Amino acid sequence: MSKVKKAIIPAAGLGTRFLPATKTVPKEMLTIVDAPIIFYVVEEAVKAGIEDIVLIAGRGKHSIEDFFDTSYELEDRLAKEGKSHLLDRLAHIRSMANIISIRQKQALGLGHAVLSGLPVVGKEPFAVLLGDEITMGFRGEPNVTAQLVSSFNETETSTIAIMEVLEKDVSKYGIADVEEVKPGFFKVNSLIEKPKPHQTKSRWALPGRYVFDSEIMNLLKNATPSLNGEIQLTDSMKVLCESRGLNAMTFKANRYDAGDKLGYLQANIELGLRNPELQSGLRDYILAISKKLKNGFLE
Ligand code: G1P
After folding, report:
1. How much is the average pLDDT of 232-247?
2. Which of 13, 155, 246, 254 lies 20 to 30 Å (CA to CA) from residue 19?
C-alpha cells in the first residue's frame, strides 16, 4: 500500500464564530502567538511525513496561499537589515510543503470539501486535518497525524482520532460508537454527526484528524446532503465502517479548540508559555493577574 504523502486541509468556511474579525481575515489566518492557525496545522502534517498539502479554499482566502509563498519585498528588506533569524523562519515556512490550492465553489459541507481534493489525491491514501483544532505532540513524541499514519501503515485501514467529551458537548462533534480492541485502539461500529445527547450513549468525539484510503472518495461521490443540507463526511465514514472498516485511536497530545473563542485564547496562552521569548513575562503576568482574580473580577 502506498505511503500517506498527501493531506487535505479544508479552509473554505466563513468563520462566523469569529465575526467581526473574520469579515476580512480568514479564520485560518487568525494568529496564535506569532503565526496563523494554518501554520500549526500544516506543520503537524509535515512532521507526519506529508509532502503535498491540498488546501480547499473558498473566496477571500488568498492570504493563506500568500503566507506559504515568497514575499520578495519583505525578504529583500530583512536581508538588507541583516535579520537572518526572521529570514530563515520565512524560508522554512515557504519550503515546508507543496501547497496546492483547490477552490470549493459551493459551500456544500465538509464531505464535499474533502471530495474537492480528489483531483490531487487520486487513489492514494491521505490525511485530513481540520484547522479548527490545533494539536501539539508532546516533546519528542509523534504528533496526532503521525500517530494515525503509523496506525494506517500497520493496519492498512482508515483510522481516525477520537477523544472523550462531556455529555453536554456531544452535539458539537461527530461522535463515534466504538469497541475497544486494545488499550487506546478501537474498531468503529457507527458514527453520528452532532447528535443530541439522548441520540447516543457514546462520548467519543472526532477532533478533526483522519487518515483515509481512497474508498472514502468513492463513498463521497455518491453521498447525499443530510444535517443542515450539507454533505457530511461523517455519513460516508459511517458507510466505510460497514464496508472496509474504520479504526479509531486516542492520542497523546495537547489539543486546543481554536475554532472557539475560549479555546483560541487558551491556545495563545499555552503556546505563549512554551515560547522561550515570552514564557517568563507571560508567566509573571498570569500569576499577578490570578491573584487579582482571587478577589473577584478585574476592575
Ligand atoms: C466538523 C465535523 C465533526 C468534527 C468537528 C471537529 O464539524 O463535521 O464531525 O467533530 O469538525 O472540529 P464542524 O466543527 O466543522 O461543524
Report:
1. 95
2. 254
Q: Is a pLDDT exceeding 70 seen at residue 53?
A: yes
Residue 131 beta carbon below 6 angstroms from any ligand 1 atom: no
**Is 55 near ligand 1, meaning CB less than 6 Å away?**
no
Is 110 touching ligand 1 by the criterion CB < 6 Å? Answer: yes
β-pairing, 209-212 with 159-161? Answer: antiparallel
Distance set, CA 270 to CA 38, 208, 273 (Å): 17, 20, 5
What would the grid cell of residue 274 be?
512554551
Domains and their CATH numbers in the chain: 6-293 (3.90.550.10)
CA of 244 to the centre of ligand 1 (A): 23
pLDDT (tens digit per residue) in 154-188: 999 999 999 999 999 999 999 999 999 999 999 99
